[in-house]
Amino acid sequence: MSDDEPARGSAGWIARQAVLDAALVSRAARYISGGHRSSDACLKARRYLEYHWHLDPARLPGEADYRAAARWLEKAGHEQAAVVLEAVAGTDAELRAAAKAWTARYAGRPAAEAEALLARHLADGTVTTGPANPVLGVDGSWYQLAALGLGAGLAAEPAVLITTMTGRDLVTGFATERAAISWIGDRMRSAGRKGPLADPAVEHLPRVTLEEHVLAWLLRQRRALPADGPQLTGLPWTSDCRREIAAALHTATSPDRRAGPREVAAELARRMLRAPGWAADQVGWPAGMAAQDYLKRLAATPVPEAPARHALTVLTLDPTAADQALAELALRRAAPGAAVADVRVTPAPGRPARIAGEHEQRMAVLMDKSAPYLDQPDSVAARMRITGPRP
What we know:
It is globular, with a radius of gyration of 24 Å. It starts with 10 loop residues before the first helix and ends with a helix. It has 17 helices and seven strands. It folds into three domains: about 10-90, no CATH class; about 115-305, no CATH class; about 320-370, no CATH class. The strands form two sheets. Strands 1, 2, 3, 4 and 5 form a five-stranded antiparallel β-sheet that branches. Helix 1 (about 10-20) crosses helix 4 and helix 3 (about 40-50) packs across helix 5. With about 400 residues, the protein is an alpha+beta fold.
């Protein structure tokens, strides 16, 4: 770039591109007029220009840049281009509000005890990652082959390390490394796979799969959620794609009919126009095509009602109460002769308490042996957005 050439994305650069790419501006103008200057129409025009001008999604121009460019174009006699850029500039407040809401989903969420435990195992070598780099999954999370050490003289167990927008999860229980690799391959976005999403060949399904079971079931049936079910948008989704698909499903559903894949796709397209630039890798830029491809795979995934309801129950457990139950289990086990069978786990409000299961008791043992050693760190999501995932 020469000294007198305006920086890409600056007001001067935008004005020059509007003159040089008159055909692009004309197409953007048709989007705006065809949509009667609605917010959706103006946002569609904005994303169209940003994409075809090859602007960096993480460093997009703002309202001041577009308005300054519009004023210059108006003075130079390019009235149509000036009108387009003024309309584009008018979407900035809505985009800022959307970006703030997206960031708020994860930025203030502290690391859970399970994440602190996993961080310790990664640090001390109990969990190791393979030589291959993590790959971007169909849901916008990152997947990497890993191994869980079981002790001296025992072969390590194959596992998959997942980095989501809320933290990290270790999927264990694969019979062979090939099974773990196969599951990663099914989820690789770059593989361009279509059709149903495969469950990992493990006994205890990871959270990402449970979330998919809920969405896949709802997309394939027309009945409403159970009367005591939570609002979809209230669930702590671990992926921007799943969070936006859930929100689209909730918004597109009418009182007498649950939305299907077609209605959800249309609402998702509207929501993707408002996706912040930093989420480009997660949802696809500029129109959220990665999220739409993920929606198609979810809609093609057959999930019976019973597994879906089970997944919904697990996802709505009160995490604070669950942590308290695990701590109580550990204390009772440490006391001589103490029984643990009568320990009860308190789920979300309005649901009955229940006897702790075998898996939860095993988790209590792990928590007791590996007490949390980390202070609550900043959100993993915040670190990912700055440095990228580092499994």
